[in-house]
Amino acid sequence: MKKMMAVAALLALGVPKTMSAGADKGAEVLAEARKAIGGADNVGAVRTIVATGKSQRQMGDRQMDGEIEIAVALPDRYLRTQVDSIMGNSVTREQGFSGSALLERSAAPPGAVVMFRGPDAGGDPERAKQMRLQMQKNELSRLMAAWLLTTPDYAQGQFTYAGEAESPDGKADVLELKGADNLSFRVFIDKKTRRPLMLTYQGRPPMIRTQTMGAGPRPPEGGHGQVEAQPPPLTEIQWFVDDFRQVGGLWLPHRFTQAADGKTIEEWEFSKIAVNQPIKDDKFKS
Protein backbone atom coordinates (compact mmCIF):
# COMPACT_ATOMS: atom_id res chain seq x y z
CA MET A 1 0.00 0.00 0.00
CA LYS A 2 2.80 2.46 0.82
CA LYS A 3 4.33 1.97 -2.63
CA MET A 4 0.99 2.47 -4.34
CA MET A 5 0.31 5.57 -2.26
CA ALA A 6 3.66 6.95 -3.39
CA VAL A 7 2.74 6.28 -7.00
CA ALA A 8 -0.59 7.98 -6.48
CA ALA A 9 1.06 11.01 -4.92
CA LEU A 10 3.48 11.39 -7.83
CA LEU A 11 0.67 11.06 -10.35
CA ALA A 12 -1.42 13.63 -8.51
CA LEU A 13 1.38 16.16 -8.31
CA GLY A 14 2.48 15.74 -11.89
CA VAL A 15 1.30 18.16 -14.55
CA PRO A 16 -0.54 16.31 -17.34
CA LYS A 17 1.93 15.63 -20.16
CA THR A 18 -0.45 15.72 -23.07
CA MET A 19 -3.73 17.38 -23.88
CA SER A 20 -6.28 16.35 -26.48
CA ALA A 21 -9.81 17.23 -27.55
CA GLY A 22 -11.34 17.13 -24.09
CA ALA A 23 -14.84 15.82 -24.75
CA ASP A 24 -13.96 13.29 -27.49
CA LYS A 25 -10.91 11.85 -25.75
CA GLY A 26 -12.72 11.89 -22.45
CA ALA A 27 -15.59 9.85 -23.88
CA GLU A 28 -13.11 7.34 -25.31
CA VAL A 29 -11.25 6.86 -22.01
CA LEU A 30 -14.51 6.72 -20.08
CA ALA A 31 -15.91 4.01 -22.35
CA GLU A 32 -12.74 1.92 -21.97
CA ALA A 33 -12.77 2.32 -18.20
CA ARG A 34 -16.44 1.36 -17.87
CA LYS A 35 -15.78 -1.70 -20.02
CA ALA A 36 -12.91 -2.66 -17.69
CA ILE A 37 -15.15 -2.57 -14.61
CA GLY A 38 -17.98 -4.57 -16.18
CA GLY A 39 -19.54 -2.64 -19.02
CA ALA A 40 -21.96 0.26 -19.48
CA ASP A 41 -25.05 -1.97 -19.20
CA ASN A 42 -24.04 -3.29 -15.78
CA VAL A 43 -23.12 0.21 -14.63
CA GLY A 44 -26.46 1.59 -15.78
CA ALA A 45 -28.40 -1.19 -14.04
CA VAL A 46 -27.19 -0.25 -10.54
CA ARG A 47 -29.95 1.12 -8.31
CA THR A 48 -28.65 0.45 -4.79
CA ILE A 49 -25.28 -0.18 -3.14
CA VAL A 50 -24.64 -1.25 0.44
CA ALA A 51 -21.00 -1.51 1.54
CA THR A 52 -19.90 -2.66 5.00
CA GLY A 53 -16.47 -2.98 6.55
CA LYS A 54 -13.82 -1.44 8.78
CA SER A 55 -12.49 2.10 9.00
CA GLN A 56 -9.30 3.63 10.35
CA ARG A 57 -8.92 7.33 11.00
CA GLN A 58 -5.90 9.32 12.14
CA MET A 59 -6.42 11.73 15.04
CA GLY A 60 -3.06 13.42 15.46
CA ASP A 61 -0.67 10.68 16.57
CA ARG A 62 -3.53 8.31 17.45
CA GLN A 63 -5.38 5.85 15.24
CA MET A 64 -9.13 5.46 15.63
CA ASP A 65 -10.61 2.14 14.52
CA GLY A 66 -14.25 1.54 13.76
CA GLU A 67 -16.91 0.07 11.55
CA ILE A 68 -18.49 1.65 8.49
CA GLU A 69 -21.58 1.14 6.38
CA ILE A 70 -22.43 3.07 3.24
CA ALA A 71 -25.95 2.83 1.81
CA VAL A 72 -26.86 4.33 -1.57
CA ALA A 73 -30.28 4.37 -3.23
CA LEU A 74 -30.08 6.19 -6.53
CA PRO A 75 -30.77 8.82 -7.64
CA ASP A 76 -30.59 10.86 -4.44
CA ARG A 77 -30.41 8.96 -1.16
CA TYR A 78 -27.19 8.34 0.73
CA LEU A 79 -26.19 7.44 4.28
CA ARG A 80 -22.73 6.81 5.76
CA THR A 81 -22.79 5.23 9.22
CA GLN A 82 -19.61 4.97 11.27
CA VAL A 83 -19.21 3.47 14.74
CA ASP A 84 -15.89 4.56 16.25
CA SER A 85 -14.13 3.88 19.51
CA ILE A 86 -13.01 7.26 20.87
CA MET A 87 -11.21 7.45 24.21
CA GLY A 88 -12.94 4.29 25.36
CA ASN A 89 -16.38 5.40 24.15
CA SER A 90 -18.37 3.92 21.28
CA VAL A 91 -19.70 6.77 19.13
CA THR A 92 -22.12 6.31 16.24
CA ARG A 93 -22.41 9.00 13.59
CA GLU A 94 -24.65 9.00 10.52
CA GLN A 95 -24.36 11.54 7.71
CA GLY A 96 -26.06 11.72 4.36
CA PHE A 97 -29.15 13.02 2.61
CA SER A 98 -32.51 12.04 1.18
CA GLY A 99 -33.47 14.28 -1.71
CA SER A 100 -33.10 17.81 -0.36
CA ALA A 101 -33.14 16.73 3.30
CA LEU A 102 -29.87 16.56 5.22
CA LEU A 103 -29.49 13.45 7.39
CA GLU A 104 -27.45 13.83 10.58
CA ARG A 105 -27.79 11.44 13.50
CA SER A 106 -25.37 10.56 16.26
CA ALA A 107 -25.22 8.70 19.56
CA ALA A 108 -22.65 8.72 22.36
CA PRO A 109 -22.60 7.49 25.97
CA PRO A 110 -23.67 9.95 28.71
CA GLY A 111 -20.82 12.26 29.62
CA ALA A 112 -18.95 11.76 26.34
CA VAL A 113 -18.58 14.77 24.10
CA VAL A 114 -17.50 14.39 20.50
CA MET A 115 -17.27 17.57 18.47
CA PHE A 116 -17.15 17.39 14.68
CA ARG A 117 -16.04 20.50 12.84
CA GLY A 118 -18.68 21.94 10.54
CA PRO A 119 -18.21 24.44 7.72
CA ASP A 120 -17.68 28.08 8.59
CA ALA A 121 -20.96 29.77 7.67
CA GLY A 122 -20.47 33.05 9.48
CA GLY A 123 -22.87 32.08 12.26
CA ASP A 124 -25.78 31.39 9.87
CA PRO A 125 -27.25 27.99 10.91
CA GLU A 126 -29.33 27.53 7.76
CA ARG A 127 -26.41 28.32 5.50
CA ALA A 128 -24.22 25.92 7.48
CA LYS A 129 -26.86 23.21 7.05
CA GLN A 130 -26.97 23.74 3.29
CA MET A 131 -23.17 23.63 3.14
CA ARG A 132 -23.15 20.31 5.01
CA LEU A 133 -25.82 18.98 2.63
CA GLN A 134 -23.67 19.92 -0.35
CA MET A 135 -20.65 18.24 1.25
CA GLN A 136 -22.61 14.98 1.49
CA LYS A 137 -23.82 15.25 -2.10
CA ASN A 138 -20.27 15.83 -3.29
CA GLU A 139 -19.08 12.80 -1.32
CA LEU A 140 -21.64 10.56 -3.03
CA SER A 141 -20.62 11.97 -6.43
CA ARG A 142 -17.00 11.01 -5.75
CA LEU A 143 -17.99 7.54 -4.51
CA MET A 144 -20.08 6.88 -7.62
CA ALA A 145 -17.19 8.01 -9.82
CA ALA A 146 -14.80 5.66 -7.99
CA TRP A 147 -17.20 2.71 -8.08
CA LEU A 148 -19.06 3.18 -11.37
CA LEU A 149 -17.35 6.01 -13.29
CA THR A 150 -20.57 7.97 -13.21
CA THR A 151 -22.25 10.60 -11.01
CA PRO A 152 -25.81 10.98 -9.69
CA ASP A 153 -28.26 12.92 -11.84
CA TYR A 154 -28.30 15.90 -9.47
CA ALA A 155 -24.57 16.45 -10.02
CA GLN A 156 -25.00 17.12 -13.77
CA GLY A 157 -21.43 15.93 -14.14
CA GLN A 158 -19.49 15.77 -17.37
CA PHE A 159 -16.10 14.12 -17.82
CA THR A 160 -13.48 15.63 -20.09
CA TYR A 161 -9.93 14.56 -20.82
CA ALA A 162 -7.33 16.47 -18.79
CA GLY A 163 -4.19 14.76 -20.06
CA GLU A 164 -1.75 12.03 -19.10
CA ALA A 165 0.14 11.77 -15.82
CA GLU A 166 3.01 9.46 -14.98
CA SER A 167 5.28 8.31 -12.19
CA PRO A 168 8.32 5.99 -12.33
CA ASP A 169 5.95 3.06 -11.70
CA GLY A 170 3.06 3.80 -14.00
CA LYS A 171 0.97 6.07 -16.18
CA ALA A 172 -2.63 7.23 -15.99
CA ASP A 173 -5.15 9.01 -18.16
CA VAL A 174 -6.70 11.88 -16.26
CA LEU A 175 -10.42 12.63 -16.51
CA GLU A 176 -11.74 15.86 -15.08
CA LEU A 177 -15.31 16.16 -13.88
CA LYS A 178 -17.17 19.43 -13.62
CA GLY A 179 -20.70 19.54 -12.27
CA ALA A 180 -23.39 21.59 -10.59
CA ASP A 181 -22.66 23.70 -7.49
CA ASN A 182 -18.94 23.93 -8.28
CA LEU A 183 -18.43 20.16 -8.11
CA SER A 184 -14.94 19.41 -9.40
CA PHE A 185 -12.55 16.48 -9.15
CA ARG A 186 -10.20 14.38 -11.24
CA VAL A 187 -10.21 10.62 -11.80
CA PHE A 188 -6.95 8.87 -12.70
CA ILE A 189 -7.45 5.81 -14.93
CA ASP A 190 -4.63 3.26 -14.88
CA LYS A 191 -3.12 2.85 -18.36
CA LYS A 192 -2.72 -0.92 -17.93
CA THR A 193 -5.86 -2.06 -16.14
CA ARG A 194 -8.11 0.81 -17.36
CA ARG A 195 -9.63 0.87 -13.89
CA PRO A 196 -9.72 3.89 -11.56
CA LEU A 197 -6.52 4.40 -9.62
CA MET A 198 -7.49 7.44 -7.56
CA LEU A 199 -9.50 10.65 -7.35
CA THR A 200 -8.18 14.08 -6.39
CA TYR A 201 -10.03 17.22 -5.35
CA GLN A 202 -9.58 20.43 -3.39
CA GLY A 203 -10.92 20.10 0.13
CA ARG A 204 -10.31 20.30 3.85
CA PRO A 205 -9.33 17.28 5.94
CA PRO A 206 -11.96 16.19 8.50
CA MET A 207 -11.32 17.06 12.13
CA ILE A 208 -12.75 15.50 15.27
CA ARG A 209 -11.97 16.44 18.84
CA THR A 210 -13.11 14.89 22.10
CA GLN A 211 -13.73 16.31 25.55
CA THR A 212 -15.59 15.52 28.76
CA MET A 213 -18.75 17.28 29.85
CA GLY A 214 -18.07 20.61 31.48
CA ALA A 215 -14.89 21.32 29.50
CA GLY A 216 -15.54 23.87 26.79
CA PRO A 217 -18.72 24.44 24.73
CA ARG A 218 -21.44 21.85 25.20
CA PRO A 219 -23.31 20.32 22.27
CA PRO A 220 -27.09 20.71 22.18
CA GLU A 221 -27.94 17.25 23.53
CA GLY A 222 -26.77 13.66 23.82
CA GLY A 223 -23.09 14.41 24.45
CA HIS A 224 -22.19 14.98 20.79
CA GLY A 225 -22.58 17.80 18.32
CA GLN A 226 -21.52 19.92 15.36
CA VAL A 227 -19.35 22.97 15.92
CA GLU A 228 -18.37 25.66 13.45
CA ALA A 229 -14.69 26.49 13.49
CA GLN A 230 -12.17 28.36 11.43
CA PRO A 231 -11.43 25.85 8.65
CA PRO A 232 -7.89 24.89 7.68
CA PRO A 233 -6.64 25.98 4.25
CA LEU A 234 -7.83 24.10 1.19
CA THR A 235 -5.48 21.35 0.11
CA GLU A 236 -5.46 18.54 -2.42
CA ILE A 237 -7.24 15.47 -1.09
CA GLN A 238 -6.41 12.11 -2.68
CA TRP A 239 -8.69 9.09 -2.68
CA PHE A 240 -6.65 6.07 -3.65
CA VAL A 241 -8.81 3.05 -4.59
CA ASP A 242 -7.78 -0.60 -4.96
CA ASP A 243 -8.67 -4.19 -3.98
CA PHE A 244 -11.06 -4.66 -6.90
CA ARG A 245 -13.45 -7.59 -6.51
CA GLN A 246 -16.31 -8.78 -8.70
CA VAL A 247 -19.79 -7.89 -7.46
CA GLY A 248 -22.85 -8.56 -9.60
CA GLY A 249 -20.92 -8.42 -12.86
CA LEU A 250 -18.94 -5.34 -11.82
CA TRP A 251 -15.36 -4.96 -10.59
CA LEU A 252 -15.61 -2.62 -7.61
CA PRO A 253 -12.82 -1.24 -5.40
CA HIS A 254 -13.16 -2.40 -1.78
CA ARG A 255 -10.44 -0.19 -0.25
CA PHE A 256 -10.48 3.63 -0.14
CA THR A 257 -7.47 5.44 1.30
CA GLN A 258 -7.79 9.19 1.81
CA ALA A 259 -4.65 11.29 2.11
CA ALA A 260 -3.67 14.95 2.28
CA ASP A 261 -0.22 16.54 2.21
CA GLY A 262 1.34 13.09 1.84
CA LYS A 263 -0.27 11.75 5.02
CA THR A 264 -3.02 9.16 5.33
CA ILE A 265 -6.17 10.60 6.90
CA GLU A 266 -8.61 7.73 6.72
CA GLU A 267 -9.02 4.28 5.22
CA TRP A 268 -12.20 2.35 4.47
CA GLU A 269 -11.84 -1.37 3.85
CA PHE A 270 -15.10 -3.01 2.81
CA SER A 271 -15.51 -6.73 3.45
CA LYS A 272 -18.80 -6.84 1.56
CA ILE A 273 -20.47 -4.76 -1.14
CA ALA A 274 -24.00 -5.66 -2.25
CA VAL A 275 -25.57 -4.25 -5.42
CA ASN A 276 -29.30 -3.91 -6.13
CA GLN A 277 -30.47 -5.39 -2.85
CA PRO A 278 -33.61 -3.75 -1.38
CA ILE A 279 -33.06 -1.04 1.23
CA LYS A 280 -35.88 -0.16 3.60
CA ASP A 281 -37.20 3.38 3.17
CA ASP A 282 -36.81 4.17 6.88
CA LYS A 283 -33.05 3.89 6.41
CA PHE A 284 -33.11 7.39 4.95
CA LYS A 285 -35.62 9.04 7.28
CA SER A 286 -34.50 12.24 8.97
- β-strand percent reads over 45%
- Helix/strand/pairing class, anyone? alpha+beta
Shape descriptor reads globular
pLDDT averaged residue by residue: 84
Instruction: Tell me the major beta sheet.
Output: 12 strands, antiparallel
Rounded Rg: 19 Å
Count of domain modules:
1
List the total number of helices: 4
**What is the CATH-assigned architecture?**
Clam
Pick out the low-confidence regions.
1-7, 209-224
Biggest sheet: strand arrangement: 5-4-3-2-1-15-14-13-10-9-8-7
Distance between the termini: 38 Å
Q: Give helix % range.
A: 10-25%
Q: How many beta-strand segments?
A: 15
SSE arrangement, N to C: HHHEEEEEEHEEEEEEEEE
Please, could you describe this protein's structure?
- This protein has 286 residues and is α+β, with helices and mostly antiparallel strands.
- It has a single domain (2-284), classed as Clam (outer membrane lipoprotein receptor (LolB), chain A), CATH 2.50.20.
- It is built from 4 helices and 15 strands.
- The chain has a 12-stranded antiparallel beta sheet with strand order 5-4-3-2-1-15-14-13-10-9-8-7. Strands 11-6-12 form a 3-stranded mixed beta sheet, with no helix packed on it.
- Strand 1 (48-59) and strand 2 form a beta hairpin.
- The longest helix is centred in the middle third of the chain and has 24 residues, at 125-148.
- Residues 1-7 and 209-224 have low confidence and may be disordered.
